[in-house]
Amino acid sequence: MLGRRTARVAIGFAATIVASFMLLLVGSTGAYAHGYTTTPTSRAYFCKLGQATNCGPIQWEPQSVEGPKGFPNGGPADTKLCSAGLGQFAQLDDQRGGAWPVNNVTAGSSYNVNWTLTAAHATTDFKYYVTKPGWNQTAKLTRSALNLTPIKSFPYNGARPPNSVSHNVTLPNLSGRHMLFAVWTIADTSNAFYQCSDLNFR
């Protein structure tokens, strides 16, 4: 009898420790908010679809590319923009010599950027940036490679978006291979979500 009671106490104590740890983890990372872009297909989503390989853990959690907010003055460090500075997602920063799958787009056209939010959250805004003409396509993404004036901003002023979000933007008049850098800034945490998509302007 004593053995069973001791076992029940031990199991209850272990469960309490695990629950406390999970609460601490969620509270410290703002883990309630998650999302990724499906159009244009982001690197993270290509990995989830299996259309990009050797991706590491991002293939199971494309919604988790979360880092400090404040881009472009703050946020993830240069060369770590696509991974949001998270070491477990470092594969997203590798340009792979241009081997990432691309989204074919038309220069100057109207285009819908679509997000899937697996957990919506109070939102400051969504902003979209595109690389400059002549950017170094073989180097990891940096601020100097991007036009830091977003092609479009969508303020939410703390409102909570739906789980499916679509934003209409006008694509710049560019040619060849470029990158779209999408930033979803959360209002009530210190973080934002980042997505990199490879584009081919035609």
From TrEMBL:
Superkingdom as given in the UniProt entry: Bacteria
InterPro entries: Cellulose/chitin-bd_N, GlcNAc_Chitin_IntDeg, Ig_E-set
Signal peptide extent: 1-33
Xref: Pfam families: LPMO_10 (PF03067)
Domain Chitin-binding type-4 intervals: 34-199
Keywords noted in UniProt: Signal
PANTHER family, per the entry: CHITIN-BINDING TYPE-4 DOMAIN-CONTAINING PROTEIN, GLCNAC-BINDING PROTEIN A
Official protein name in the record: Chitin-binding protein
